[in-house]
Amino acid sequence: MGLHGAVLTFAVLGPFEVRGGDQPVHVGGRLPRRLLGILIAAEGRPVSEDSLAEGLWGDRWPRNPTGTLQVYVSRLRRALPGTTLQRSAGGYQLLAADTDVERFRGHLVRARALVAGNRHADAHEAFDAALRLWRGTPYEDLADDESTTAIRAALVEQRDSAQEEGAAALLATGDHAGAVAVLELLVHAAPYRERRWQLLALALYRSGRQADALNAVRRVRTLLAEELGVDPGPGLRRIEDRILSQDPALAATAVADAAPGDRPLSSFVGRDADLALLNRLVATHRLVTVVGPAGSGKTRLAVEWAGRDAVVRLADVADPAHLVSEVAAAAGVTGFAGDPHEALVRRLRLHGGPLVLDNCEHLVDEVARLVVDLLDRVPALRVVATSRSPLGVDGEHSLPLGPLTADDAVALLTDRVRASRPGWVARDADRRDLRRLAEALDRLPLALELAAARVRTFGIRGLIEQLDDRFTVLGRVPHSTMNPHATLQEAVAWSFALLSEEERALAVRLWPYEGGLPLEAAASAAGLDVLVSLVDQSVVTAETGGSTARYWMLETIRAYCRSVDGDPAATRAAHAVWVRELVARAEGDLRGVRSGATMAALRRELPNLRAGLAHDLAHAPVEALRTAARLMWFWIRSGLLAEGNRVLTAALAAAPDASLGDVVRARTSSAGLFYFTGDVTTARRMLSEAGLAVGSEPAYRGLLAEIRYYQALVQLPGGDPATALSASTEAHAIATETETTWLVPATAMAWGAALIMSGRIAEGRDRLRAAVRLADAAGRVWTAALSELMLAQTLVEAGDGEALPLLRSSLRRFLDEGDLSNQLAVLHNGALALEAAGDAAGAALLRDVVHFRQAHSDIRPAGTFLESTVPRGWYEGAPPAAPPTLDDAIAVLTSPGSAG
């Protein structure tokens, strides 16, 4: 039986397995299996090439890790039909994989919902179904990979918790003896997990074995004292007291691990991995600080970990002088005489257990001094703190708490909406809207909780439309919540009240930035130390995993900054000036030796470019016209042809008083965009008009050279050879005369293409080869790549074997340059070359990729530059529904064995 139509499942809760239906699937040797395991562990998130290479080869990378990765990925795609394994800006990602991890979690969600509905027998079966998926250590094949250590620990914690919850559900069915048998095994397997002992004591008590129940508590008390030097926690102590007093309510309590008031009333969604990591950190470190922005759920995580009564709330401690007495009182010190500090030390020495300090940000220095002293004087003490900034204590380990994952955020919204609208069932459209709502609210738990309560009033889509005024629309925090603030706005304002004047000024200056900003923009005005402080205080988030550091603000914090900005129009205008200056600096680099890096930088800033252009179109249209024209090659090489032309058209209409030079440059850029969309007639007309407008103006001689260069290019293919030849030779002469570095090799290239169009094939090829040499000497990678592509096109038509090596070289250069338009042009010609060489399968693969990309963009590579004879039917009809990827095509064309 083949794999066609079979559902692929991936099993990682033990040795790695892939199955198609009931058949095992072979995906290759150790490294392909390892690659797939790493991608599955990322759970749909992109994994960078560097991270994958490190995971596959450690510190012994192959000579060409990128190419080798592409080969492995291509093989995996062929071995796993129907699997969405794709490359994105952040690396490779495996989307929507059916894994036993997801099935395990799905069983847990169902089981917990059944518990909430008092269907304990069904819940026990669901927990059992979840646990049967485990076959050993999770991600067993990646045991030596440090990047999956926390993932494995989180999964093991989820399994251990599921074992306890399953036993509790069994106990709640009334099968007390069966629960005792299960729990004896569980306490033996993990004797330091106190909840297991609590459940065992309860099961024994309900079985009529009161003495054995009391003995179970005393067994764990002895174990903890002798091996760890600690006393049992509050839960065990409570159940011991209730057994001794023969509390009548004990026999009817479904779950005895928490007394009333210990746990929140709402379910805990989306932080299981963080809870497991906190457990692991506290087990190995004496001070752990949970750090995150307002509304991220730091307090809730602490309460889930320690219990409500074990958390010392510091939000209401306004006077630092009262800190010690408040902590002492919360820790159970009562009626003390003398120094409360000494009483607190004695209490902690006597009773052990962790000290949990919540909301420390406004008392960071005082809390830090207290914690240092307590850790020094109480050797067994563990401290967990929550704060919007680290305490800055030696030996401190931080647990950053950011937004929920997209799936967890939707799950939280769904759970809370159901709580306010019983019987509500989310349809596909609702789930899509919930995801949009979650993203708009930064996936912050507090904002999501408030939004869910407002769905009753506005509906999901209506609420999304109201979020420009999110602080008013989201309303007040419900009573009895663990959040110390009355509204989301107050929660954010609390953070800002702790900032210095310089820090507040920088935060407010950053709100117009869309999609983040680079280091130089964040630190230029106020200095690096101010930026560092904002990151430490969770006002700005730093992303340092890529090649360059990047900084961003949550939308909720941006909204607050905008609301307190005394002059938001000036702040927005300053951001627009930054965008103009960025593009002005980049214009020359797009044509030079740094063009690849500049393209990557501009792509990162695309949201900022759009915001700056939108501002200038409304308030400074001439500046918008200049910026859009300078971005010509960015629009082209990114495949954003229609967007670029929309901006240029709008700017030309909005700036009727712009100078001749600005207007001509904009029209020239627009002509280039029209050409790459296949509208050659419009491109030629616009360039002819531009040339006439400046042809007699000596001040615009350099601009004329550019226009004449583009005039030569747009005659290719199928244009007038005489026009191409006269335009290219004149452009080359002016460029040489004015020593315009980038234009000399570019016009030599256009000249060579024009010679070939004129029938002077050998002379034209020599000129193109000379253009490659000139471009290489000047460091103009893009011009060299295009010259090679043009030369290869003439050789493809002639059946010359030199075409494929030239196309491979050209493709590598365009990949480095980030030029999607010309990558597709190379692949188009590569398909022709492979077809001519007898490699029909390779040609078909390249053709499918080009057709699919062409159908999903404005790029028309088939008509680019030199006329090619395209076999009838190559690009007719609809593109393939599930085509090979660009990576597959690149791997086929760059493989040394392609075309035999």
From TrEMBL:
SUPFAM superfamilies xref list: C-terminal effector domain of the bipartite response regulators, P-loop containing nucleoside triphosphate hydrolases, TPR-like
Residue intervals of the OmpR/PhoB-type domain: 1-96
One example GO MF annotation: DNA binding
Protein keywords: DNA-binding, Two-component regulatory system
Keyword Transferase: no
Domain of life of the native organism: Bacteria
Pfam families noted in UniProt: BTAD (PF03704), Trans_reg_C (PF00486)
SMART domains linked to this entry: BTAD, Trans_reg_C
GO biological process: phosphorelay signal transduction system; regulation of DNA-templated transcription
DNA-binding region listed in the record: 1-96
InterPro entries assigned: BTAD (IPR005158), OmpR/PhoB-type_DNA-bd (IPR001867), P-loop_NTPase (IPR027417), Sig_transdc_resp-reg_C-effctor (IPR016032), TPR-like_helical_dom_sf (IPR011990), WH-like_DNA-bd_sf (IPR036388)
Family: Belongs to the AfsR/DnrI/RedD regulatory family.
Annotated PANTHER family: HTH-TYPE TRANSCRIPTIONAL REGULATOR RV0890C-RELATED, REGULATOR-RELATED
Name this polypeptide is given: AfsR/SARP family transcriptional regulator
Organism: Streptomyces sedi
